Amino acid sequence: MYPDEPRVGDVMFVEFSPEKELLRAACSWNGKSYRLLSVGDTFAVALPVGLKSKVGARHAMVYWKYTDGGMGKARLPVTVCERDFGVQHLRLSRSQESKYTAEETRREKRLIGAALDRVGAERHWWGRFVMPVEGRISTGFGMQRYINDRLAYRHKGIDIAAPEGTPVRAAASGVVSLADDSFILHGQTVIIDHGHGIATLYIHLSQIQVEEGAWVGQGQVVGRVGVSGVATGPHLHFGVYAYHEAVDPFFWTDLPERGPGE
Ligand SMILES: [Zn+2]
After folding, report:
1. Is 241 found in the same domain as 153?
2. Domain of 22?
3. Residues with Cβ within 8 Å of residue 191, at least 6 apart in sequence
4. Residue 6 lies in a domain
5. For the segment 182-220, what is each residue's pLDDT rounded down to a tens digit?
């Protein structure tokens, strides 16, 4: 398992090497069941340690069944470490604020949700992710965000401030599962499905340069930094999701070059 002691916002890589021909294997964690998927000779899953995870001594269970009917299970002790994510206050005009709950945003939330729910059977990510844009981090991952003094939501990605038009690069290889320039809250949005439950999200773009269904390589330009949707200045909001749960993008860009994520 990697890392040994995950923090809230990390991912845990669990690997299983079957002794015989495997029928299926799954891992139960945080009240959900995740299928282990084939990676070379082994089976693996990247479990989200989401923002709502309980901290302290926990465990995950791995269950497997062989084609000959044999079964087994193993208990994986996990110590989840706490993190302080901080607080941010934002001032928005009433018309900007109202877009968070506007009826028209239901469609974009549904489309984004559907893209994040996809779990492609083929894995396209290997090793460390690249930062899609170089720039100052204006809002960190997990911050409690208050809008006009009301608790609004947890910030589920990082905001990278950069001039409008700066190229935005794919953090890892994958298939474009959403490319939509019509959203009023998120602005022009791209989602890349990296397979095995991992997806990246790029929002507030000024321009989209890929089409849905296209395969993109790591570092390939997918669009340009902008201020579309509800944004207070030009920046990229970059999110990484593991099975639809937001995790810290820096976990992925700080992975060892070779090893667990590989
Ligand atoms: Zn953001």
Report:
1. yes
2. 11-80
3. 112, 115, 116, 176, 177, 178, 179, 199, 200, 201, 202
4. no
5. 999 999 999 999 999 999 999 999 999 999 999 999 999
